[in-house]
Amino acid sequence: MAIAWAYRQNVRFVTHWLVRRIVTEIGAPSMSGATGRRRRVRRLLARAVADQNAVMTDSNAALLTIAELVELAQARRGPACPACGALVCPGWEALPGSFVRDALERVGTLRGPEVDDPTVAEYHPNGTHAWSSDAPIAPGWFPYNRCDAWRCKTCARAFLRYTEYGGYYTEERIRELDAALIVDVAPPA
Hints:
- The protein has a five-stranded antiparallel sheet.
- It has 189 residues and is α+β, with helices and mostly antiparallel strands.
- The chain has helices at residues 2-26, 34-56, 66-74; strands at residues 93-94, 104-109, 148-152, 158-165, 170-176.
- It folds into two domains: 2-56, no CATH class; 66-181, no CATH class.
- Mean pLDDT is 79; it is low at 1-9 and 52-57.
- Helix 1 packs antiparallel against helix 2 (34-56).
- Strand 3 (148-152) and strand 4 form a beta hairpin.
- The longest helix is centred in the first third of the chain and has 25 residues, at 2-26.
- It starts with a helix and ends in a 13-residue tail after the last strand.
- The protein is built from three helices and five strands.
Protein backbone atom coordinates (compact mmCIF):
# COMPACT_ATOMS: atom_id res chain seq x y z
CA MET A 1 0.00 0.00 0.00
CA ALA A 2 2.88 2.38 0.73
CA ILE A 3 4.12 1.97 -2.83
CA ALA A 4 0.66 2.77 -4.19
CA TRP A 5 0.50 5.89 -2.01
CA ALA A 6 3.98 6.99 -3.16
CA TYR A 7 2.99 6.37 -6.77
CA ARG A 8 -0.13 8.54 -6.45
CA GLN A 9 1.92 11.28 -4.79
CA ASN A 10 4.56 11.08 -7.50
CA VAL A 11 2.25 11.26 -10.54
CA ARG A 12 2.41 15.06 -10.73
CA PHE A 13 6.22 15.00 -10.61
CA VAL A 14 6.45 12.32 -13.30
CA THR A 15 4.06 14.23 -15.56
CA HIS A 16 6.06 17.47 -15.34
CA TRP A 17 9.33 15.59 -15.74
CA LEU A 18 8.04 13.79 -18.83
CA VAL A 19 6.86 16.97 -20.52
CA ARG A 20 10.24 18.65 -19.91
CA ARG A 21 12.14 15.60 -21.15
CA ILE A 22 9.99 15.16 -24.25
CA VAL A 23 10.33 18.81 -25.25
CA THR A 24 14.08 18.67 -24.57
CA GLU A 25 14.71 15.46 -26.52
CA ILE A 26 12.38 15.78 -29.48
CA GLY A 27 11.51 19.47 -29.59
CA ALA A 28 8.18 21.21 -29.49
CA PRO A 29 5.32 19.46 -31.32
CA SER A 30 4.79 20.21 -35.00
CA MET A 31 2.77 18.64 -37.79
CA SER A 32 5.76 17.39 -39.77
CA GLY A 33 7.21 14.07 -38.62
CA ALA A 34 4.38 13.46 -36.16
CA THR A 35 4.48 9.64 -36.51
CA GLY A 36 8.16 9.40 -35.59
CA ARG A 37 7.63 11.78 -32.69
CA ARG A 38 4.72 9.68 -31.41
CA ARG A 39 6.93 6.60 -31.37
CA ARG A 40 9.69 8.45 -29.54
CA VAL A 41 7.18 9.81 -27.02
CA ARG A 42 5.88 6.28 -26.39
CA ARG A 43 9.42 4.99 -25.87
CA LEU A 44 10.27 7.87 -23.54
CA LEU A 45 7.07 7.33 -21.58
CA ALA A 46 7.72 3.58 -21.23
CA ARG A 47 11.32 4.23 -20.13
CA ALA A 48 10.23 6.89 -17.61
CA VAL A 49 7.55 4.66 -16.10
CA ALA A 50 10.03 1.78 -15.82
CA ASP A 51 12.63 4.07 -14.18
CA GLN A 52 10.07 5.47 -11.76
CA ASN A 53 8.75 2.04 -10.81
CA ALA A 54 12.29 0.77 -10.25
CA VAL A 55 12.98 3.62 -7.81
CA MET A 56 9.72 3.23 -5.91
CA THR A 57 9.80 -0.56 -5.63
CA ASP A 58 13.45 -0.96 -4.70
CA SER A 59 13.22 -3.66 -2.07
CA ASN A 60 17.00 -3.89 -1.74
CA ALA A 61 17.17 -0.83 0.50
CA ALA A 62 17.77 -2.03 4.05
CA LEU A 63 15.87 -0.42 6.91
CA LEU A 64 18.58 1.27 8.96
CA THR A 65 18.71 1.15 12.75
CA ILE A 66 19.78 4.12 14.87
CA ALA A 67 23.19 2.50 15.44
CA GLU A 68 23.69 1.94 11.70
CA LEU A 69 22.65 5.53 10.98
CA VAL A 70 25.20 6.87 13.50
CA GLU A 71 27.89 4.59 12.05
CA LEU A 72 27.06 5.80 8.53
CA ALA A 73 27.32 9.44 9.64
CA GLN A 74 30.70 8.83 11.29
CA ALA A 75 32.18 7.01 8.28
CA ARG A 76 33.02 10.12 6.26
CA ARG A 77 36.63 10.72 5.39
CA GLY A 78 37.91 14.29 5.58
CA PRO A 79 36.38 17.41 4.08
CA ALA A 80 33.74 17.40 1.37
CA CYS A 81 35.07 16.33 -1.98
CA PRO A 82 34.26 18.05 -5.30
CA ALA A 83 31.67 15.37 -6.07
CA CYS A 84 29.44 16.20 -3.09
CA GLY A 85 30.72 19.61 -1.96
CA ALA A 86 27.65 21.42 -3.30
CA LEU A 87 25.40 19.29 -1.06
CA VAL A 88 27.14 19.91 2.25
CA CYS A 89 24.66 21.90 4.29
CA PRO A 90 23.69 21.54 7.95
CA GLY A 91 19.92 21.73 7.33
CA TRP A 92 17.50 20.73 4.59
CA GLU A 93 18.13 22.20 1.16
CA ALA A 94 16.69 21.60 -2.30
CA LEU A 95 18.78 19.15 -4.29
CA PRO A 96 20.43 21.29 -7.00
CA GLY A 97 19.13 20.48 -10.46
CA SER A 98 22.67 20.54 -11.84
CA PHE A 99 23.95 17.99 -9.32
CA VAL A 100 25.19 14.73 -10.86
CA ARG A 101 23.08 12.16 -8.99
CA ASP A 102 25.45 9.30 -9.87
CA ALA A 103 27.94 10.71 -7.34
CA LEU A 104 25.80 9.27 -4.54
CA GLU A 105 24.81 5.68 -3.79
CA ARG A 106 21.74 4.65 -1.86
CA VAL A 107 22.71 2.67 1.24
CA GLY A 108 19.45 2.26 3.12
CA THR A 109 16.13 3.73 4.12
CA LEU A 110 14.37 5.06 7.20
CA ARG A 111 10.94 4.29 5.73
CA GLY A 112 9.41 1.40 7.62
CA PRO A 113 7.89 -1.11 5.17
CA GLU A 114 5.01 -1.86 7.55
CA VAL A 115 3.97 1.81 7.86
CA ASP A 116 1.43 2.78 5.19
CA ASP A 117 0.97 6.39 6.26
CA PRO A 118 3.90 7.72 8.32
CA THR A 119 3.28 10.63 10.66
CA VAL A 120 3.71 14.22 9.51
CA ALA A 121 4.41 15.37 13.07
CA GLU A 122 7.87 16.85 13.56
CA TYR A 123 10.13 16.46 16.58
CA HIS A 124 11.52 19.79 17.84
CA PRO A 125 11.89 19.73 21.65
CA ASN A 126 14.27 22.72 21.83
CA GLY A 127 12.27 25.17 19.72
CA THR A 128 13.99 24.29 16.45
CA HIS A 129 12.09 24.02 13.18
CA ALA A 130 12.40 21.93 10.02
CA TRP A 131 14.94 24.30 8.43
CA SER A 132 17.11 24.67 11.56
CA SER A 133 20.69 23.52 11.17
CA ASP A 134 20.56 22.04 14.69
CA ALA A 135 17.18 20.32 14.30
CA PRO A 136 17.31 16.77 15.69
CA ILE A 137 17.35 13.87 13.26
CA ALA A 138 14.56 11.67 14.64
CA PRO A 139 14.00 8.73 12.24
CA GLY A 140 10.42 8.03 13.35
CA TRP A 141 9.29 11.62 12.78
CA PHE A 142 8.67 13.73 9.67
CA PRO A 143 10.48 14.17 7.31
CA TYR A 144 13.01 11.53 8.35
CA ASN A 145 10.40 8.75 8.25
CA ARG A 146 10.26 9.31 4.48
CA CYS A 147 14.03 9.48 3.89
CA ASP A 148 16.56 7.29 2.19
CA ALA A 149 20.21 7.34 3.26
CA TRP A 150 22.78 8.10 0.59
CA ARG A 151 26.57 8.15 0.62
CA CYS A 152 29.09 9.93 -1.58
CA LYS A 153 30.97 7.35 -3.62
CA THR A 154 34.21 9.35 -3.30
CA CYS A 155 34.44 10.52 0.34
CA ALA A 156 31.71 8.45 2.10
CA ARG A 157 29.92 11.56 3.39
CA ALA A 158 26.35 10.57 4.26
CA PHE A 159 23.14 12.38 3.36
CA LEU A 160 19.41 11.97 3.88
CA ARG A 161 17.07 12.57 0.94
CA TYR A 162 13.30 12.74 0.56
CA THR A 163 10.82 14.24 -1.87
CA GLU A 164 8.57 17.04 -0.65
CA TYR A 165 5.17 16.99 -2.33
CA GLY A 166 3.72 20.51 -2.26
CA GLY A 167 0.43 21.68 -3.69
CA TYR A 168 1.86 22.64 -7.09
CA TYR A 169 5.37 21.25 -7.02
CA THR A 170 7.63 18.44 -5.96
CA GLU A 171 11.10 19.06 -4.65
CA GLU A 172 13.89 16.69 -3.77
CA ARG A 173 15.46 17.74 -0.48
CA ILE A 174 18.78 16.71 0.99
CA ARG A 175 20.53 17.12 4.31
CA GLU A 176 23.98 16.06 5.46
CA LEU A 177 23.79 13.36 8.10
CA ASP A 178 25.30 14.56 11.40
CA ALA A 179 25.79 11.85 14.05
CA ALA A 180 25.58 14.39 16.88
CA LEU A 181 21.98 15.27 15.91
CA ILE A 182 20.60 11.72 15.66
CA VAL A 183 18.09 10.95 18.43
CA ASP A 184 16.18 7.78 19.21
CA VAL A 185 12.66 9.00 20.04
CA ALA A 186 9.54 6.96 19.43
CA PRO A 187 7.11 8.54 16.96
CA PRO A 188 3.65 9.64 18.17
CA ALA A 189 1.07 6.89 18.44
